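Quick board copy: two proteins, each given as sequence then tokens.
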Amino acid sequence: MRTYTDHIDTIFSLAINDKGNKLFSAGGKVIKEWDIETGNRLSTYAGHMGTIYALVINEKGTKIFSAGEDKVVKEWDTETGDCKRTYKGHTDTIYALAINDKDNKLFSAGADIQIIEWDISSIKGDINDKGEQVINNCLRT
């Protein structure tokens, strides 16, 4: 048995990369990246303005998506730790994420009683549900 301890808030979501060697945990406003073989924390991803409730990772393990209380979805590059995009469109807390890698689609759902389908292809920059540019506010520590 191994215990991963570094969060200071309740952990609501977990995701594991395709190789099975990295674990991502969402607690409070941050995501922690862990080395499963050693149990060591590798990185902390910060950028959300509220509690994160959902995580999902793409099939290749190169992107992780997070969402929660701040009503946005953030796309993170798991190799660099950089936040690549922020998706804005929900009007209330987001509680669920699902991904369809085959069609480059991400789905988010929450307390605003809607499901939004996002195109996660190689579009650059941040977008909202109308396809408009938005400001990126992601940090990695």
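And the next:
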Amino acid sequence: MAFNGLYCILLRYHLVFIRDRKVTANPTVLGDDQRWNAMIISVLPFYLFILKGENMKVIDQFILESVSNISLHPFDEKLYLSLISKHNQQDSHVAFRVNNYDNAYTIKYDNEVCGFISFVRSNFDKNQAFIQIVIIRKFRGRGILQVSEDTVDKNNKLKRLLASIKIKNIASIKAHLKAGFKYFPEDKLNELRLKKNLDKNMTRLYKDYK
């Protein structure tokens, strides 16, 4: 375990270096003083191999924290409407509803607006909250969803996040599953639909936090 901790530290240093210096994986285009630094990239698979298995979740988190520069800011409705219209996102997401602006945020990636996120606490359990998030298409696949949702959970001391997603929105479902969410059991989903607590064209996922 001590060695694993050391490998994690080294991996994180290398990822941060790559992010900050933006080195390339081709030593031939670098000066002599930079070629050693470029070799950092080539040794990453070695770290991942050593830390495979149960430690991969730790590595995923290190990667997200190291290569991402993600921050949450006060929600700007006018900015949201203009960007969503510009990027034609209306048909691919559930309508973004904000009941409390204190619980809504603008997401920035490297100081550029990349999405929006908000949450509403459950009426039955204040430790649970329904989350909704919109990521502009060109920023998807960078781990922004997971970092943003985990940050909202941590800052508000929640125990569980709930995500109601259109069944046809496969991309969003896959992104949430990759971020650690799980499906509710089918019998529970059917019960929610019968009670009119979940539309028939929607599914629901959850993620528990310690």
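Board note added afterward: The chain is about 45% helix and 20% strand.
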